[in-house]
Amino acid sequence: MDKCTEELARCQSSLIELSKLLQSLEGLQRTQSAPNFTDMQVPSLPASMSPTRLHSSNPNLCAEQVDIQTPVSRQIPDNMECGGDYIKLQENFCLIAQKVHSMLKSAFNTVAMEKEKIKTVLSDQEQSERSAQVITLRKSLSQALSQNAELKTRLGRIHSESVPSEQTISVNLITSPDEVASYVFYWIKSLFCCHCP
Question: What's this model's pTM, rounded to 2 decimal places?
Answer without folding.
Answer: 0.40
